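The aim of this short unit is practical: by the end, you should be able to scan a pair of folded records and say something sensible about each. We start with the first protein, listed as its amino acid sequence and then its structure tokens.
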Amino acid sequence: MLALMPVWVPVLDTVMAPQTETGVPVEVGEGVQVLIPSAVSCQGSDRLEVYPGAVLAEPGSVVNVTIKVFFKHAQPCPYNDWSVSYEASGDIEVVGDDGGKLADAKTYVRELSVRVDGNGTLTVVYDYGTCPEGDKEVVTVDFYVGSAPGGLTPVTTTPALTETSTEESEVYVNVSGSVVSVDPYGGTLIIDDKIIYFRGEFYDPSTGAYLEKEQVLASLSPGDYVTVVCKVTGAGKYMAEKVVLSNGTVLTKG
């Protein structure tokens, strides 16, 4: 596990202008196909985003991974002990790390190079330290060699780093774990202590059919392990956008 403590720049929060959205193309590496553009976590006041979120790579290829933290408050802030760390597992190895830096007072950027010899996972953690506005943001990046899980196909566009302030951007969170309870007619699913709301239809690429939320939820049972990509509303509700089933099938909101 490697970590980097923050490097500070003397800019006050009160004079920060709002960031505007821009697209910065991500060069992920030769022999690499992006399956999921980014992995995002925003449980507290800040947002952790890692690009790409999942890839299919040729053995021996090197994948460029970008870690970004979008801060609610400009740095330095009164709680200056936050940190960013990562851990590689499986047949991958981090062979390059630029150490990370503040690109501006509200954005931290860190670039990694990951050699892929087989399937593996990179877990990235942003720790708030003593900041009372959050605990940890955790995301995982999956690396596949040979073939991807069913339902995951390469994206057709180059992923981009989204330069937006946390307050202005849409926030997405990946929630993974075992189903605690499910209510098909109420349209809710509980994973750990999180209530996830389902609305509308979801497309199943394995059958080409659109499923009503009741059908999706009725197919799940307590104990099933799933990943749900959720949009977080202004009221803090988790709304399901994608569901990754245990067999790898990805159901996408229509």
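Turning to the second protein, read its sequence before its tokens, just as you did above.
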Amino acid sequence: MKFPLAVIFVVLSQMASAQVSIDLSGISVKTGPGSSASGSKNTVSNEKGVIGPGADVEGVVIINDEVYIDGNKIARGVTQYVSKKTKTVYAIRWGKKGEGVTVTEK
């Protein structure tokens, strides 16, 4: 009973780490790290740690000690920010590099 379960586990773990690439005329799709899809003048990519310029974001997003409010990147050292989208006032407290940042609504 243990042997078949081990085989299933190995097969499933191999499938989870697989990459897929499909190329048809005019369309290209790749999955895995740095995956992308393109076709007829449209290109989509997957990057970690980045907010795309066309993303509709509302609220606070913190990625790797970088602060974004309503999709706008806030420069390090800014202690107060008024959202152009919602008119909400935010207080920003920057820690030392690597210690994080705290954002609260005023």
